[in-house]
Every structure is written in C-alpha cells, then in structure tokens.
Amino acid sequence: MILVTGAAGKTGQAVIQALVQRGETVRALVYREAHVATVQSLGLADVVYGDMQQAEVWRQAMLGVQALYLICPNMYPHEFELARLATGTARDFGVSRFVYHSVLHPQTETMPHHWQKLRVEELLFETGLNFTILQPAAYMQNILGSWPGIAGEGVYRVPYPVETKLSLVDLADVAEVAARVLVEPGHDYAIYELAGPTSPSQTEVAALLSEVLGRTVTPERVSPAAWRREAEQARLGEYQIETLLKMFRYYEQYHFLGNANVLRWLLGREPTDLKRFFQRVKDK
After folding, report:
1. Burial of 126 (0-12, 13-18, 19+ CB in 10 A)
2. Who contacts 171 (Cβ-Cβ below 8 Å, separation ≥6)?
3. How far is CA 155 from CA 101, 112, 131, 277, in A?
4. Rounded CA gap, 281 and 89, in Å?
5. What is the per-residue DSSP string for the chain?
6. CA angle, corner 277, sides to 282 and 209, nearest 5?
7. CA dist 40 to 24, 106, 206, 222, 255, Å?
8. According to the model, what pLDDT value does residue 158 have?
9. CB distance 30 to 47 below 8 Å
10. Using CA atoms, how far apart are residues 204 and 193, in angstroms rounded to an integer?
11. Inter-residue contact 170 to 7 (CB < 8 Å)
C-alpha cells in the first residue's frame, strides 16, 4: 500500500495516475471531504480525508502503508511541523519507504517556501527512515495559468522580467519518477534534482508558443503591484502573496536554473521539452 498526501492537488493527482498505471495499490489523503470524489475519479476507492496537522488523521491514513509520498500544502508556513508528524507516524507504523516532494534549490533562504523544505530535508536525515527526496523545478504546467491571455490575446504575462531564465519540468515526468522511486529498488537515501532539458527566458517561451500556436505571442511583464491586486482579488492569503513576491524577486535577480542529467537518467529517456509540452496541450 502506497499513501499519497495532498492527493487532490495537481501533483498528487499526477503521482496517483502514474502509480495506478503501474498497477499499484494506492491510498489518498486529502484535506476536505469535498476532495474525495476528485481522487476517486482517478480509480481509487481508498481515500482518507482530514487535517494533516492532526495526529489521528495520520494514524488513520498510515494503517497498512509500506510507502509514503509526502506532498505538503503549497507555500504552507507550518510545513516542518506537519513533516514532523508525518515522519513520527511513519516510524511508529514501520513505513519502509518515505519519499518527500521538495523543490529545486531549497537552500535559498530568501524564498521562504524553499527554506521550509530544506528544514524538512534535514529532519529526514535524523529520522532513521529510508528516504528519497525529489527536488523538482517549476512545472511547465504553471504556464497554463496564463493560457487565457496566451490563446485569447496573444500575450504571455509573467510577474518578473521577460529576460528571466527558468528551468521548467513536465509534471508528468516528475510523476513518473515519483512512481519509480516509490516501488523500485536502488533509491535509498537519494536526493534527486529534477529539471527539464532547457532553461528558457520568458521571451524564448513566448517564441515557442508562437511557433506551436501559429500566431504571435508577446511576452509582457506584470508589475508586482498589479500582480498583488490580482492575487488579492483571487483571495490568495497574505503569507502566500508575500512568499510568491519574494520568489519573483529572487527570479529577477538570479534566475532559477537546473540540470536535466538526473531526470534523464531516472526516466531512461530524454525529458519532455517545452515545445513538446506545448504541442501536447494544443492537441488536447
């Protein structure tokens, strides 16, 4: 039995789909009862719901589990405390594989959600658990949040300079790797950076969009003030807004660059590139 937490989110759903395709027995842990149907639609009957800050929820979810894929809520200020509950319960229940969904470059203290994950990684070293840590780059799927402007207006809007270079990775590739390290031997105590084969500027992203869509797509920077207004209108929390603005400032100063060699080795094939991803989205 494999437990996937944060199962109703896009990462959790992708990992579950990859495991189900392999014929694995999976249990999902979701936050709200309203999320149960979402993961059941992926072919799961075994779903637990509840607040991951509650020890009893972890005890219920961990019964009969041999492997755990820990996905914490996005930009969650208490990730360390949540992970301490998860690792403690995993030890108590004799979980033999603990895979943690971290982030590329968790060492960056100026991005609080990265720094939180570094503390969790350190915690794992001290638990005695058989762990694997995955550190994915930003998802190619994140660009889909701008799709209405891209497809409708021919404008690709980003909250940092269009010259900013970002390593991107296809979530489907990440999910495939997650399934492999959960069930295949040879990944004990490993830390794997997962980045795609290129690190394009936002101008280059727009050029690829133009090529695939057959129309001109222009990159455009959204100012921090304008982005904040949109985030507030979308009812994003203040902690999340501030955390993301710090991330955008970091990107502006230093870019966000990774290497595809580890992902290529884990997949046993070439990772998905951005042009192929856009073509897949267009063909859906």
Report:
1. exposed
2. 10, 11, 14, 139, 140, 141
3. 32, 30, 43, 18
4. 40
5. -EEEESTTSHHHHHHHHHHHHTT--EEEEESSGGGHHHHHTTT---EEES-TT-HHHHHHHHTT-SEEEE-PPTT-TTHHHHHHHHHHHHHHTT-SEEEEE--S-TT-TTSHHHHHHHHHHHHHHHH---EEEEEE-EEGGGGGGGHHHHHHHSEEEESS-TT-BB-EE-HHHHHHHHHHHHHSSS-TTEEEEE--S---BHHHHHHHHHHHHTS--EEEEPPHHHHHHHHHHTT--HHHHHHHHHHHHHHHHH-B---SHHHHHHHTSPPPPHHHHHHHHHH-
6. 60
7. 15, 32, 36, 38, 39
8. 95
9. yes
10. 23
11. no
Chain centroid to CA 228:
22
Quick one: pLDDT at residue 114?
A: 95
Q: How confident is the model at residue 207 (pLDDT cuts 50, 70, 90)?
A: very high
pTM listed for this prediction:
0.94
CB 140 within 8 A of CB 230: no
Tokens representing 141 are 């799927």
Amino acid at 44: L
The pair of structure tokens assigned to 38 is: 């979402």
Q: How big is the chain, counted in residues?
A: 284
